[in-house]
Design brief:
Elements (H helix, E strand, L loop, with lengths): L14 E2 L5 E2 L1 H45 L1 H4 L18 H23 L8 H7 L2 H13 L6 H36 L10 H26 L6 H22 L8 H19 L19 H22 L22 H19 L17 H41 L1
Antiparallel strand pairs: 1-2
Length: 419
């Protein structure tokens, strides 16, 4: 038997490319590793960029607060603008907040338009999202300056639009919170593969329910101790009813979702109820704000900054949670894919700018907000209460919808079985 003089393909040490250039396998592996390292560097740069955008968002909204409370005294030069006449507050207080908010919206909505279809790390739009900070700083300054030359009538129109945008932001944030609660419940469910036992889940659900009940009792003591506080009594009582309904439905034999997710959701709606009552104006007879001083002490100042930082964090977490809002979720991802959806991230921040504006002006375009206050007024109270009821409704539907769909399928299959 004559052996072939041609070498076996498995023993070849060189790979011929289409351009007749030979590359050693070791060199090819080196190129792949280099490409992988470059993708890793770009991904880390992209992940760091989101924190930079979060800091920009925080600074802009603190600037909006500054214009509301101190802008008229510290920035008298703005009175020389055609949109800011002497003797008027067109660039300060409510309209000042809306002007800064409009600038923030312009910047982030522009970033949304320029990054909305980015998919790979090697695309130029990824470089735009993660770099070019000097140019973006100039664009940001221009975006913040332009609204101060816009007539007040157009700023009022933006304020009306901002109410809608803020409502959309609340809806996105609500869906994100409920999805997180569902994920947390599924993570702590008993699983042999993950070696999870039900003991920790039972402990956590018990802790959340105890905290929720204690919160309801405390709200009754602090904000509904008088029989004349009928509105607060209604708010707190209805929250307790929603808590009980969620627990009963979660334990129903057809639902059987356990108590952990309903316990977390119960704590969330109790928090929303407490926040709504805290937003009642100081003129209300059962308002907790009646004991506050006119300018507020250290507790007011600290509470203000904590509230601002908490809302920024909520905006940030909603912005990076793009998977929740995808209709088709692809589990397979390559190392060259972007770590989060840039377009959705910037869209949430642009809506968050509208939401922040509503908080600073208490959802009211015609009144002045007290210094060092955020989200105080009857409009703010009802927005939070409706948000609480809406959250409970979405969660309850999420519990019963699988049962409803299953019953519909069984109802359509019964005639077929009878044939």
């Amino acid at each position: 038997m004559v052996e072939s003089a041609a070498p076996d393909e498995a023993t070849m040490v060189e790979v011929k490319l289409s351009d007749n250039v030979a590359i050693h396998p070791a060199e090819k592996r080196g190129q792949l590793e280099q490409k992988s390292n470059e993708s890793l560097v770009k991904k880390k740069k992209s992940l760091r960029a989101r924190y930079a955008y979060g800091m920009i968002f925080l600074i802009i909204n603190l600037t909006a607060w500054f214009f509301r409370d101190y802008g008229e005294k510290i920035l008298p030069l703005l009175h020389y603008s055609k949109a800011c006449r002497v003797g008027q507050t067109g660039c300060f207080h409510t309209l000042g907040v809306l002007r800064v908010s409009l600038g923030c919206f312009i910047f982030f909505f522009g970033m949304f338009l320029t990054t909305c279809n980015t998919k790979k790390l090697h695309q130029a739009r990824n470089q735009w999202h993660s770099g070019w900070w000097a140019l973006k700083f100039v664009i940001l300054i221009i975006s913040l300056v332009i609204p101060f030359f816009v007539p007040s009538d157009y700023i009022q129109v933006y304020g009306e639009i901002a109410r809608i945008g803020a409502g959309i932001f609340l809806l996105l944030q609500l869906v994100s919170v409920i999805e997180f609660i569902t994920w947390w419940n599924d993570y702590w469910m008993p699983d042999e593969k993950k070696k999870h036992s039900c003991s920790l889940g039972i402990f956590m659900s018990t802790l959340f329910y105890i905290g929720s009940v204690c919160g309801i009792v405390l709200m009754f003591v602090l904000y509904a101790s008088k029989a004349s506080c009928t509105l607060n009594i209604f708010f707190i009582s209805w929250t307790g009813i929603l808590l009980a309904v969620m627990m009963i439905i979660s334990l129903h034999s057809k639902v059987n979702r356990g108590l952990l997710s309903s316990g977390i959701m119960a704590s969330y709606i109790v928090f929303l109820c407490w926040s709504a009552i805290r937003s009642e104006p100081a003129t209300a007879k059962c308002s907790p704000q009646t004991q506050d001083s006119g300018h507020g002490g250290w507790t007011t100042v600290i509470g203000f900054f904590i509230a601002v930082c908490a809302i920024v964090m909520a905006t940030f977490s909603t912005g990076i949670d793009s998977q929740t809002f995808q209709f088709r979720k692809d589990d397979i991802q390559s190392e060259d894919d972007i770590p989060y959806k840039y377009g959705f991230f910037h869209l949430v921040f642009s809506l968050g700018a509208m939401y922040f504006a509503m908080l600073f002006i208490s959802w009211n375009l015609d009144s002045l907000t007290k210094r060092w206050c955020i989200d105080v007024g009857w409009a703010s109270t009802w927005v939070k209460i409706i948000n609480e009821w809406f959250a409970a409704t979405i969660y309850l539907w999420k519990l019963i919808s699988p049962v409803v769909r299953q019953n519909k399928v069984m109802h359509h299959e019964e005639p077929v079985q009878g044939v």
